[in-house]
Design a protein that fits this description.
It contains 1 helix and 34 strands. By secondary structure, the chain is mainly beta. It has a single domain (about 50-435), classed as YVTN repeat-like/Quinoprotein amine dehydrogenase (Methylamine Dehydrogenase, Chain H, 7 Propeller). Strand 12 and strand 13 (about 215-220) form a beta hairpin.
Length: about 425
């Protein structure tokens, strides 16, 4: 028995030695010629400096929803070329390991409304003085158990969602609670108000139309269930003729606003070949309704332009979005999931230029500890503006993508920038509202 085992070991060792000698004797054959990637990568395209024009800037007094309006597109706001810090004031809790800020400010009637990381809504006047504050969680709720929320403003009311699954209407002048509707699911995407209804998308992939006077459910619809999503997801884009709901499954459903009857539906699904921020299908960019089109993007590398009337796909760009895009002139501007600022051709979705934004956060010994977050872009005062968690608000030339200026924001940005009355507002990660004018 021992002799058999020894013989087997000897044969095995001899075979391994022969294999090693054969492998060592092989030489790589290097073929001559140009090396071409088997997959075309959009990042290899050349940047183009292309003329850009947009309607003249006009001073706006309100910014009531994400990107300014219920359709998530606002006309070109006026903003001075030379901005200086105007005030900094606390709005409550900032980002932490368990909670984070998920909403930008809304502005109306000379008042800035904000919501912190623990569902505290604050009203601040244009001098930086707090007018009132209201915590949305009930007495039985631990504020640490839910994060963030979203805001909108209409008809003297502030509408707020929170991580506890509530939609609350507050009196804008006093902060008094007018009504609360339990959505039975976290509704941290921002509500959208049009006419006498407020539209909300919950994290359980249910959409609601709620009556703004009573808080009663007017109608609701359900998308395909999905187990993957992220806080502060996309909310509905609405005009008087259509309401478009994005769901974390990638479903997009367009309805008639009053009755909820479906007009069309589609799926925005797929990922960029190669690297992508995530593989989840959640839609990160609120539907932006611009003219006869709607633009919607997911976080894994897909942005589409759809015909507003039919839902037919007009073009697809292999670019993820981390927020709503900004259509202007002949272009669409966005920050993608790879921390790049892009200008796309509005007609076909081709890249005109792309600019790298700060990406990885490195610690000791060059170890990667995370990624910077970038909020925006918006166009105001003729320039692109992006607020970033690295402590800078950057301005870019829409024509070429060239950096034209920076503003420091202590603690780094935690929200999209907004503009009203020629003042720029941004919330920082430390839970402070910063105003520049």
């Amino acid at each position: 028995m021992t002799g058999t085992m020894t013989t087997g070991k000897t044969i095995f060792s001899t075979m391994m030695l022969v294999s090693f000698m054969v492998a060592c004797g092989e030489t790589d054959i290097i073929l001559p010629g140009e090396r071409i990637d088997i997959r075309t990568d959009a990042t290899t395209s050349q940047n183009e400096t292309r003329a850009f024009s947009v309607r003249a800037a006009k001073a706006n007094t309100a910014w009531t929803h994400r990107n300014g309006t219920p359709s998530h597109q606002i006309a070109h706001p006026a903003l001075s070329e030379s901005l200086q810090p105007h005030f900094v004031t606390s709005i409550g809790a900032g980002d932490s390991q368990r909670a984070r800020i998920t909403a930008e400010p809304v502005v109306a009637g000379g008042v800035i409304y904000t919501i912190d990381a623990l569902s505290r809504v604050t009203a601040t006047d244009v001098s930086g003085q707090m007018l009132w504050a209201r915590v949305l969680s009930s007495g039985s709720d631990n504020p640490q158990d839910a994060s963030g929320g979203g805001l909108s403003f209409a008809d003297g009311r502030v509408f707020a969602t929170n991580g506890f699954g509530d939609l609350t209407a507050l009196d804008a002048s006093s902060g008094a609670v007018l009504w609360t509707q339990d959505l039975d699911a976290p509704g941290s995407s921002a509500p959208t108000v049009m006419g006498d209804l407020v539209y909300v998308v919950g994290r359980d992939n249910t959409a609601w139309a709620i009556e703004i006077e009573s808080g009663r459910i007017h109608w609701q619809l359900t998308g395909t269930p999905s187990s993957a999503g992220f806080a502060g997801g996309a909310g509905a884009g609405v005009t008087k003729d259509i309401a478009i709901f994005p769901f974390s499954s990638g479903d997009v459903i367009a309805t008639f606003p009053k009755g909820g009857l479906r007009r069309w539906s589609t799926v925005v699904a797929g990922a960029r070949p190669g690297a992508a921020l995530a593989k989840i299908s959640d839609i990160a960019g609120d539907p932006v309704i611009a003219g006869d089109r709607v633009y919607i993007g997911n976080v894994s590398g897909f942005l589409v332009a759809l015909d507003l009337e039919t839902g037919d796909r007009l073009w697809t760009a292999r670019e993820g979005t981390v927020g709503p895009v900004w259509p202007a002139g002949d272009s669409v501007f966005l920050v993608n999931d790879q921390n790049e600022l892009l200008r796309l051709d509005r007609r076909g979705g081709a890249v005109v230029w792309r600019v790298d934004l700060p990406d990885e956060i490195t610690g000791r010994w060059g170890r990667v500890e995370g990624r910077f977050a970038h909020y925006g872009p918006i166009i105001a005062g003729g320039r692109l503006i992006v607020a970033s968690s690295d402590g800078q608000i950057r301005s870019f030339d829409p024509t070429s993508g060239a950096l034209t200026g920076t503003l420091a924001i202590e603690g780094g940005a935690a929200s999209n920038p907004v503009v009203a009355d020629q003042t720029l507002y941004v919330i920082s990660k430390s839970g402070h509202l910063h105003a520049f004018r």
